[in-house]
Amino acid sequence: MIKGGQIVYISNQLQSTNYFLQESMFSSREYIQKKTGPHGIGRFSYLQSLVTEFQETTNMEAKEQVLANLANFAYDPVNYEYFRMLNVLDLFLDCLSEDNPRLVEYAIGGLCNASLDKLNKEIILKRDGVKKVVHCLTSDSENTMLSTITTLMYLTTPQSKKDICTDSVVDAMIQLAGSPNKRISNIATIFIEDYCEKRQVDYVKSLASREDESEPS
To answer: Which residues pair with 2 in a beta bridge?
Structure first.
């Protein structure tokens, strides 16, 4: 999730627990509709105003702030129905191709937060989301890289695995596993160990080794 402009990563173990207390008043749509947004407007209206502001403003700093807010709302399942109604997931996907690295960071953070949900996952996959997310593996931003790898994990299903665990992605993960950045190295290693077939990893490594040997010294 994103809090205070920083993405907070929840471990798979925590994600598998009932992290959001469904009976809590804070997970009650009625409660949130009364309390969220300026002047107590409903959450849907508030989210709609954020989407409208993002689409209409020409101020880049304002766009960044709005997208960060939307990404923050993406951690709460209560918002997912509204997200789908407002096409927020499409907005996140579109922003992955932006030149502004902050927009990319917040967009992939939002997708990361929302992609564990089954319906959201289906929408992202149908919108060619895997290809757009994979493109973010070239980012220089630590937060973007962490969100990208985590999102690919969350999007992996028996059906989507062939599109996610391609040789090129496996090769990228192998390279990232050797990163001096421990956070990136650790999560790339988890991806390799938990989502990739060992024979494919060995095959990709052998290809890389052959290429190194063929290069003139």
So the answer is: 7
Q: In this structure, are 89 and 121 located in the same domain?
A: yes
pLDDT digits (tens, 9 = 90+) for 42-89: 889 999 999 999 999 999 999 999 999 999 999 999 999 999 999 999
The backbone torsions φ and ψ at residue 178, rounded to the nearest 5 degrees and listed phi first, read: -95, 10
d(CA 91, CA 112): 14
Which structural domain, as residue segments, surrounds residue 187? 165-217
- Tell me how far apart the alpha carbons of residues 18 and 208 are, in angstroms, rounded to a whole number: 42
Q: Which string of b and e fits 91-122 if b means at least 16 CB within 10 Å? A: bbbebbeeeeebbbbbbbbbbbbbbbbeebbe
According to the model, what pLDDT value does residue 41 have? Answer: 63
Cα 105 from Cα 146, distance rounded (Å): 10
